[in-house]
Amino acid sequence: MKIRQLIVALPIIIALVMALLPFGTNAQAATKPEYRRTTENYEIPDVTLLNQDGKKIKLRSILDSGKPLIIDFIFTTCTTICPVLSANFLNMQNKLGEAAETVQLVSISIDPEYDRPEQMLNYLQMFRAKKGWDFLTGSRDDIRLVLSAFNASFVDKMSHIPLYILHKPEAEEWVRIHGLIGAADLMSELGRVQ
Predict the structure, then answer these.
(1) Which end of the chain is more exposed for a tag (fewer CB within 10 A), N or C?
(2) pLDDT band at residue 25, thresholds of 50, 70 and 90?
(3) What is the domain extent for residue 145?
């Protein structure tokens, strides 16, 4: 493996290892991250985005899938919190097993100028994403609308916040998880939403 590839892969490897460690060990109990859970009402903008396959997706159509939905906001070249958020999605899919397709996971790029379908597909492949996990991008204006709608705007991509947005089909309220959350806690929050 080339040095550059190793440098790019190292944060992802660390995130995966940390996410795979079972909670309850002394080291993790002392450093278990805190998060804040609130319920919110969001109005979803009528935007069309591109998924990792280059397919146009109306964002609102995701809500009509009849599945519980979890959204995060990441970018493919991030080396800090994005790999941790993605590792949680991977762990969730692995824990759900064959039922993974019953939950819709959506990562929305906050770097639409760089994150195009090819980069997003490579990212999902690197995380061994299964069916039911989509990565969306779009124009800068459409992404701004989405970030604003979910109260997830930021000054620059390096200062974005760790955030999951959960939604039960046909529910009015959304659950907002702010902060780093472990895979076990995210599964628990999904159970509460379902």
Answers:
(1) N
(2) very low
(3) 3-193
Q: Global pTM?
A: 0.82
Burial call 123-148: b when 16+ CB within 10 Å, e when fewer: bbeebebbebbbbbbbeeebbbbbbe
How many angstroms from the chain centroid is the CA of residue 183? Answer: 12
Residue 115's Cβ-count burial label (10 Å; 0-12, 13-18, 19+) is buried
Rounded distance between C-alpha atoms, residue 121 and residue 117, angstroms: 6
CATH of the domain at 36: 3.40.30.10
Model confidence at 22, pLDDT cuts 50, 70, 90, reads very low
Q: Determine the 3-state secondary structure of 17 from DSSP.
A: helix
The tally of domains found in the chain comes to 1
pLDDT per residue as tens digits for the range 26-75? 334 445 558 999 999 999 999 999 999 999 999 999 877 899 999 999 99
